[in-house]
TrEMBL record, chain A:
Protein name: Phosphate transport system permease protein
Signal peptide bounds: none
Organismal lineage: Bacteria, Thermotogati, Deinococcota, Deinococci, Thermales
Localization per record: Cell membrane; Membrane
Reported function: Part of the binding-protein-dependent transport system for phosphate; probably responsible for the translocation of the substrate across the membrane.
Family statement: Belongs to the binding-protein-dependent transport system permease family. CysTW subfamily.
Domain ABC transmembrane type-1: 76-288
Xref: PROSITE patterns: ABC_TM1
InterPro entries: MetI-like (IPR000515), MetI-like_sf (IPR035906), Phosphate_PstC (IPR011864)
Keywords: Cell membrane, Membrane, Phosphate transport, Transmembrane, Transmembrane helix, Transport
Automatic annotation (TrEMBL), chain B:
Transmembrane regions listed in the UniProt entry: 22-42, 182-209, 229-249, 255-278, 299-324, 368-393
UniProt name for this protein: Phosphate transport system permease protein PstA
A Gene Ontology biological process term: phosphate ion transmembrane transport
Gene Ontology cellular component terms for the protein in this record: plasma membrane
Topology relative to the membrane: Multi-pass membrane protein
Subcellular location: Cell membrane
Molecular function terms from GO: phosphate transmembrane transporter activity
Main localisation: membrane
Segments forming domain ABC transmembrane type-1: 184-389
Assigned keywords, A-Z: Cell membrane, Membrane, Transmembrane, Transmembrane helix, Transport
UniProt record similarity statement: Belongs to the binding-protein-dependent transport system permease family. CysTW subfamily.
InterPro entries from the UniProt entry: MetI-like, MetI-like_sf, Phosphate_PstA
TrEMBL record, chain C:
Organism per entry: Thermus parvatiensis
Sequence ranges assigned to domain ABC transporter in this UniProt record: 25-266
Top-level taxon of origin: Bacteria
Name of this protein: Phosphate import ATP-binding protein PstB
One Pfam family hit: ABC_tran
InterPro entries given in the database record: AAA+_ATPase, ABC_transporter-like_ATP-bd, ABC_transporter-like_CS, P-loop_NTPase, PstB-like
Length: 300, 401, 271
């Protein structure tokens, strides 16, 4: 209750408490600052050596070659490919799950199913990567000729399940916040349950649902272990899901587990990629928040 | 009334009614699919963690030993079989240094089946050589054939890779003797230190936001910032850790650097769960305390926080579970190194369970996939324990206000 | 002051009962349970065509429950059990062969709090029509017609295709909900305390509207505002603790009620 938050008292112990709390919480602000500054310093170093145009437009990413090229495009293409495949799985499944959980399950089962789905998100992503590489890929190779051992297809498919709870649970939350009275109005007009779900609740929760999808996309872009394990670490400018590729995250892992001497261009390239990744996911998160705020329906 | 109305007069719409039924049924499919995938994933990992192997023993015959013998007896017999004399064997088992080296190099494993019968011990050492490794189904099918074709010095075993010695052993270049012990200790060190940093910050921030700050600029900034931090990919925290802790503060690839990195990653989750716990405390409690003349601090720390404690603990456990599985950021702050010893302090080198699993997966030898499966099972068991604990706490302390 | 046992003994007191031939809805010995809790006790009553019937009674007495059992909205509550019959134009809507969804298409409903969909005004009114497959210019015409009949047209005619229904004032929202309900031309319109969330001026507009709607529709309105019941209704039902205590022409109920409880309630001695 707002009114219970008193003005800070003049008593020294009270003020000290507040001060300590403020100091503690400033760590969260410092973290953001740290992320930006620590990345930025090395990013600046990188762009001292590599022109921005090269970074943006060169078609190859080969920092370790004798004649290195530093074009981010292959990494972006790889990231995009895996993310698209993951969303292709997670969005339909997640939305269907959300509708099912929010509109068809009685409230006592609702919490339980959401909890189970959340557990799904709690499985470490190395495990998903392992499954993609050793189970899904061999299976797909039987069906799809020319599928590389490391490929964005199985990484993306499995990642779709890993990010499923981000779609389903956030979307279900959005649907649950649509007031019951609106559902009743639709039922009273003779709508069937599926019409209520699809024509009333889903549109009413649309901003939340879109935000859920954007957040899931941002997760997929930043997800590391599944791609590092199953999609490969060879930057290739392609949208063919059968070929070995690298994403921004898998490149960072590759570079970090090899040994780039501190101060080399390849070392700074790590931070340039990381910063791009940071900006991209930040933009998506901000966009999702904006959509939720801007288009939230204000019911009575 | 001059007409005889029938119920059908209401105009059934059989077509739409059917869509409705189909729709309601079809919606269950995604849930079944997701659960099916989960079952498949667990089943596949379990399946891979057991295999049928033919191993050529480095020295001596491919002996197996009956169930019930102590590891020490078995090692002594193995040494004798390798040609050591009684005195030499006794000396090696008594001298602490020799003994330690012996136990590091030789792994006494209980096999589910061997060519000499079920549930017998074998001794595996670093120099043993794999002849063949079969999946469970194929191995069992060809068991008799394999047994008949065993060469001198070879042994046939049904090997459960996840066993007791796996939990305590250090990593190894040979999959036959690799263990997850060092990584478990690394996880314990890194996680405890990380929580040590993250809990005060996370809970302090939650208390500040829920109990102290009125809605205004500062609370808005903190909230927006937290929301964005929660969305930053974990690998970016790794870059932060690399630049700031490993290099900037000169901590090197140490437990401390990893703990700081992981701690920062954990803060947003802890804040969210702690805020929920605080919000669940009804205002009537606060009002009652204020009415008794308590100061703000007394209300918060003597009434509200104790009431919210079970919820906060649950939240911390859940975020710990999240952090345990994080591999990506730690790869950047030194966990990828080959570390043969458990950490002894905050500045030790370390590796953690998920990174160890990743390293095994990246190896070429097929048995490392089995070692990785065993590692995954260990990690999942650990996580299940934490989730069950959180669940227990949540139910045990659930209160109807 | 009144025990349920005493009430249950009692037969409903009726003045000028509605003859079967004039009834649009004929409720016969209806009882209803929410799980194990009984909310309606053996209710029999007829609702005459093209008249306004008001249901009054203290809160929690089952007014809404009775109203919602007329279009089977209660089916949406898990664990509901119904005994008895509700004949609509002679058909028992609780017959197992009847599809509750089809019933609701014939019967409009307006709720206590305005609940427009978060869609445009047009789409709100068009919703029921679209469910029935109405399209194109006919859809448009019938939406406009409904808005006119709900006395909302003049206020929204230049923006009804663009503006969200949630942007309207409370009174306008409620008239929008009425327009939405009557767009499909339901012979019967159910209203559950439709003005309880509105200010006096908006209430006045809705009451005027109800009197106009009476020409074309049969209206059943739940209200706990007795002046409102007196102003708009032709007949009044008084309920207490799930029992229909008395029913009759509104002026009889309000001026010379026969049952002592009715009198006590009307004169404000309980409820
Ligand atoms: N969905 C429900 N589940 C259980 N009991 C209910 C439900 N709706 C109403 N009731 C109970 O039925 C009785 C009648 O309620 P209601 O018809 O809403 O009364 P009124 O509209 O006259 O205020 C009340 O005692 C109420 O508690
Ligand atoms: Mg009511």
């Amino acid at each position: 209750m707002e009114i219970l938050k008193q003005r800070p008292s003049r008593h020294p112990v009270e003020r000290l408490t507040l001060l300590v709390l403020l100091l503690l919480s400033s760590v969260t602000l410092l973290t953001t600052l740290g992320v930006i500054l620590s990345l930025l310093g090395d990013v600046v170093q990188f762009f001292r050596r590599v022109p921005l145009a090269e970074f943006l437009f060169a078609p190859e990413w080969t920092p370790l070659f004798a004649e290195p090229r530093y074009g981010i495009a292959p990494l972006l293409a790889g990231t995009f490919l895996v993310t698209a495949i993951a969303l292709f799985v997670a969005v339909p499944l997640g939305l269907a799950l959300a509708v099912y959980v929010s509109e068809y399950l009685p409230s006592d089962k609702r919490a339980r199913v959401l909890g189970v789905l959340e557990l799904f998100g709690g499985i470490p992503t190395v495990v998903f990567g392992y499954f993609a590489l050793l189970f899904v890929t061999p299976l797909l190779q039987k069906v799809i000729p020319g599928l590389s051992l490391f490929n964005p297809l199985s990484a993306g498919l499995v990642m779709g399940f890993a990010i499923l709870p981000y779609v389903s649970n956030v979307a279900a939350d959005a649907m649950q916040s649509v007031p019951r009275s609106i559902r009743e109005a639709a039922y009273a007009l003779g709508a069937r349950p599926y019409e209520v779900a699809l024509k009333v609740v889903l549109p009413a929760a649309l901003s939340g649902v879109i935000a859920a999808i954007i957040l899931a996309a941002s997760r997929a872009i930043g997800e590391t272990m599944i791609v590092a394990i199953a999609a490969g670490q060879r930057p290739t400018l392609t949208l063919d899901p059968r070929e070995t590729i690298a994403t921004m995250t898998s490149y960072i892992v590759q570079a970090a587990t090899g040994d780039q001497p501190v101060g080399s261009t390849a070392y700074y390239a790590l931070f340039a990629v990381g910063f791009t990744l940071f900006l991209l996911t930040l933009a998506l998160n901000v966009l999702a928040q904006y959509i939720v705020e801007r288009y939230r329906e204000r019911y009575e | 009334m001059n007409r005889t109305p029938t119920p059908e007069a209401f105009g059934q719409d059989p077509w739409k009614a059917r869509i409705d039924r189909v729709f309601a049924r079809a919606l269950v499919l995604p849930l079944l699919l997701a659960l099916g995938l989960l079952a498949l994933l667990l089943g596949d990992t379990l399946y891979r963690s057991v295999s049928v192997q033919v191993v050529r023993a480095d020295m001596g015959p491919g002996h197996t030993y009956p169930f019930g013998l102590s590891a020490e007896t078995i090692l002594r017999q193995e040494l004798l079989a390798q040609g050591y004399t009684e005195e030499e064997a006794a000396f090696m088992l008594q001298d602490p240094k020799e003994r330690n080296a012996l136990f590091l190099q030789n792994r006494v494993e209980l096999m589910w089946n061997t060519h000499e019968g079920p549930f017998r011990y074998v001794v595996t050492n670093v120099y043993d050589e794999r002849v063949a490794d079969f999946s469970l189904a194929e191995g069992l099918r060809r068991w008799n054939e394999l047994k008949a074709n065993l060469q001198e010095g070879e042994r046939l075993v049904l090997n459960p890779w996840l066993d007791q010695t796996f939990l305590t052993r250090p990593p190894s270049r040979s999959p036959l003797t690799a263990g997850i012990g060092v990584a478990i200790w690394g996880t314990v060190w890194v996680l405890s230190l990380a929580l040590f940093f993250a809990i005060p910050v996370g809970i302090g921030t939650a208390i500040l936001l829920e109990e102290y700050l009125r809605e205004g600029r500062l609370s808005r900034i903190l909230e927006v910032n937290l929301r964005n931090l929660a969305g930053v990919p974990s690998i970016v925290y790794g870059l932060l850790g690399l630049a700031l802790f490993v290099r900037g503060m000169g901590l090197g690839p140490s437990v401390l650097a990893a703990a700081l990195t992981l701690g920062l990653l954990g803060i947003p989750v802890i804040v969210v769960t702690a805020r929920e716990a605080l919000r669940a405390v009804p205002d009537s409690l606060r009002l009652a305390a204020f009415a008794l003349g308590a100061t703000q601090r007394q209300v918060v720390f003597r009434v509200v926080v104790p009431a919210a404690l079970p919820g906060m603990v649950t939240g911390v456990i859940l975020s710990a579970a999240r952090l345990i599985g994080e591999a990506a950021p730690l790869l950047l702050v030194g966990a990828a190194a080959y570390v043969p010893f458990a950490p002894t302090g905050p500045l030790s080198q370390y590796t953690v369970i998920p990174v160890q699993i990743y390293l095994w997966i990246s190896q070429n030898q097929p048995e490392f996939a089995r070692v990785a499966a065993a590692g995954i099972l260990v990690m999942l068991l650990l996580l299940s324990a934490l989730y069950l604990m959180a669940l227990y706490l949540r139910n045990r302390f659930r209160r109807e206000w | 002051m009144v025990s349920l046992e005493q009430l249950k003994e009692h037969q409903t007191v009726r003045t000028d009962p509605v003859p079967e031939s004039q009834a649009l809805v004929d409720v016969r010995q209806l009882s209803l349970w929410y799980g194990t809790k009984q909310a309606l006790y053996d209710i029999s009553v007829r609702f005459p065509k093209n008249q306004v019937t008001a249901i009054i009674g203290p809160s929690g007495c089952g007014k809404s429950t009775l109203l919602r059992s007329l279009n089977r909205m209660n089916d949406l509550v898990p664990g509901v059990r119904v005994k008895g019959e509700v004949l609509y134009e002679g058909v028992n809507i609780y017959d197992p062969r009847v599809d509750p969804v089809a019933v609701r298409r014939h019967i409009g409903m307006v709720f206590q709090k305005p609940n427009p969909f978060p869609k445009t005004i047009f789409e709100n009114v068009a919703f029921g029509l679209r469910l029935m497959g109405v399209k194109g210019s006919e859809l448009e015409d019938r939406v406009v017609e409904a808005l006119k009949r709900a006395a909302l047209w003049e206020e929204v005619k230049d923006r009804f295709k663009k503006e969200s229904g949630l942007r309207l004032s409370g009174g306008q929202q409620q008239r929008l909900c009425i327009a939405r309900a009557i767009a499909v031309e339901p012979p019967l319109l159910l209203m559950d305390e439709p003005t309880s969330a509105l200010d006096p001026i908006a209430t006045q507009a809705i009451e005027d509207l109800i009197l106009e709607l009476k020409e074309r529709y049969t209206v059943v309105i739940v209200t706990h505002n007795m002046q409102q019941a007196a102003r708009v209704s032709d007949r009044t039902l008084f309920m207490h603790l799930g029992v229909l205590v008395e029913e009759g022409p509104t002026e009889v109920i309000f001026t010379k009620p026969k049952h002592p409880y009715t009198e006590a309630y009307i004169t404000g001695r309980f409820g």
